[in-house]
Structure formats: C-alpha cells, structure tokens
Amino acid sequence: MGLSRARLATVLGLLVLGGVSLLTGVAHLDPRQIFADPEALQLLMLSRLPRTMACLLTGAGLAVAGVIMQLMVRNRFVEPGTTGTAEAAMLGLLAVTLVAPGMAIFGKTMVSAVAALIGMGGFLLLTRNLPPEQPVLIPLVGLIYSGIIGAGTTFVAWQTDLMQYLGVWMNGEFSGVLAGRYELLWLAGVLGGVAWLAADQFSIVGLGRSASLNLGLNYNQVMALGVATVAIVTAMVVVTVGLLPFIGLVVPNIVSRLLGDNLRQTLPVVAGMGAGLVLLSDVIGRLVRYPYEIPAGTVFGVVGAIVFLWLLLGRGASLAR
Fold this sequence. Notes:
With about 325 residues, the protein is an all-alpha fold. The protein has 13 helices and no strands. Helix 3 packs across helix 10.
C-alpha cells in the first residue's frame, strides 16, 4: 500500500467511524433534527462529540507514545502498557487520591505524569543490562516489571478501600466522558505534533547512542523529550479514561510492515490508525451488549493480546531492533 493511499484510507476511515460514533448510543439521535431539536443538539455537544474526540485523541496519543518508546528502547515489542509506565501512572494517581483527594484534575495529572516518568526511568535502567542479541527479554522484563508495580498498586488500593477506583483506571472506557471532562486530552494531540516535528531526531535515536552522537545529535535531550512525551500522554489517558493496553504496540508494528520505517512520513498514519482502532473498539463496545456497554479497553485488549503474543513468539522476532 502506498503512503498516499494509506493516508487517504485513514482519513476516510476516521470520518466514517466518527459519524457512526456520533449516532450510536442509547438515546436516539436523528441527524436531520440536530439543529431543529435543542435536546438533540445538547446531546451531541455535551456527550457524543466529546466522547468521539476523546477516543480519537486517546488512540492517537497512545500510538505515537508507543512508537517513540520503541525507538528509544530499540525494540518493537514495547509500549507504555507493557513497560510499567501506565502502572506507575496509576500508582501516582492512587497516591494523590489518598493524600489530596480534592486536588484539581490538572494537578492529579501532573503527579501521575511524574510517577510515570519515574516508572519509565526504572524500566530504561533495567534494559541497559539486557543482552541486545536477545530482544525478547526486554518485553518479558517489562511485563514482570509492570506486574510488580501493578501488584503493589493493588495492595495499596485494597488496604485503603479504593479497589473500585483502581478498577475504573484499569479499564479504559469512555462512557463517563462529557464536555469539560476530557479537554486535557487535547494536550496529547499537541505532544503528537511535537513528536512529528522531532521525528527525524527520534529516528536517529533508534540507531543507538553511539550512532546518534556520531551524527551530531544531542542524544540526552531527545531522550528526555521522548520520555516526557510518553509519560505525560500516558498519565493524561489514565486520569481521563483509564488504561487502554496494546494500542502503542500493535499500531506501530502494523504501519511499519505496510509502509516502512520513515517516521516522518508514517507518523500521521500511526496516529490516525491508533485513533481509528480506539474509536472502533468503543463503538463495538456500545453495540455488543446494547443498551449496556463493554469498555473499549476490554474490546481491544483481547485483540491486542493475541497480536502481541504473535509478535513475541512468532514472526515478530524479526522485528526487534
């Protein structure tokens, strides 16, 4: 598939899915009556449109964060949900809920982002000592590392009677998204634009530290930008809608196989495909048990887990950097 065709298909797919999302829900919304019926217009502006935009921004942000992390670690099998970053963000959110439950949402997001930074830093330190000729070890260590942080978070939540909160954060779902409760996700779109501007630098980082320094790149500065981008995007998603696994792993691998590894050219497709898959998962979750809902994270988690195992145990071994 050519790059231009891929971009066109991505745009058309997003338009179709966006229209379906706006019209899907328990309350009937007739597009012919939107501007004639004040209640229909209110439903569109307060619920359906914010939910659709939240899905798009979440998917795009997680997909971009995933490809950045893969370049920094030089491994195709990693993403925020399999390296302890998302679990650390949830631990930070749990801590601020215990210490300062009345803190504004922006403050909670920043605390969660700092925790995600620390968690991601711990993973990067662990990967330094792993042999590069065994790429499968990196995601396995990441899963173990994530499990340890997740277990600690669960223990604290159990002891403090906050398991219900933790359950919400662990299952990415968009039923509670309303106007005024998702706007921080627009920052994920801004960070995606920053990543596109720095795409060439991230591509060089993917060559390794020695090669980057030989090419005159400020390696530490680009790594810091990448770590901050991944941590902030992950924290915003966890705080706003909860954890959605495997988006940052599956999408970059699919795009890489179809279009190659020119990050500047393919990053818009990565963002668009991530947005489309999250929106599709949310629509499916609304329809499978209509009028009840299944979280989008659960829907995509099933598919993402299968693809992850296939990449990890099958043909994916050739994808490791």
